[in-house]
């Protein structure tokens, strides 16, 4: 029996399906596996929750190269970081199944620019919108989005959308020819499934996939070149430093009026530590005792903390022994706040 489609969901609704490294790697693996699946005709990419995707997950800040890095080293640092995205887009460009993008809700940043030009069919939920704040964040349209949008909706409309970050409804995008169909938001996923079932009942799956190949094969070289050109331009923006500075200002704006949050690490000189995350209105969020301390552990807690503005210095065990009150006071304060919060 032929499988109608294999749906792939962006399933991080608590973060509005924002992209992180794990999600990107899962996507690369999924598209690779689905490309070899013998019974699949449609590969559907959609989201869980009220957003399709809010773009990149910047809660943990932007990873930066060592401060002593030269311009060339900085560019190579970011080009290596972009390798996951580039492999994802290469696999999408070469994907043999009919790629259906199903926008279940708003698509922002990469969620609005990455897939629309590569997808073979785009459907959306009524009331959704698309917006890309590239210029406001010191970025550029990523991974070939600029020529793709110019070709699909015209250069001037593309400039309005990509340069100025104009918020466009899916109804407007449908009138421009970027979206095939709009379904009611209620029961959206079921409606998409029903629509694809109808197509497969009438049309031959292999014929549809062959039509896709004939359309896309002449565009492959152009798309791959555009992807590399955009990665080069994006890396150069990071060499200039504009994105890091603009992301920093954006994070500060988002944190105004929010509870103070920080993470802490108390480390002994034998390599063990107590670490956790603390929030002003919630007390102790997470704690691990006697866990070997690594840089990855510290990074994890920086990411977990909603607004990380303070990290406590580590204390060697000798210092704690010479001043035991320091350890007890610091240690008990978090426990007291956490206990009070539970009552």
Automatic annotation (TrEMBL):
Transmembrane segments: none annotated. It comes from the Eukaryota. Pfam families: ECH_1. One of its GO terms (biological process) is fatty acid beta-oxidation. GO terms for cellular component: peroxisomal matrix. InterPro entries: ClpP/crotonase-like_dom_sf (IPR029045), ECH/Chromodomain_protein (IPR051053), Enoyl-CoA_hydra/iso (IPR001753). PANTHER family: PEROXISOMAL D3,D2-ENOYL-COA ISOMERASE, PTHR43684. This is Uncharacterized protein. It comes from Aspergillus terreus (strain NIH 2624 / FGSC A1156).
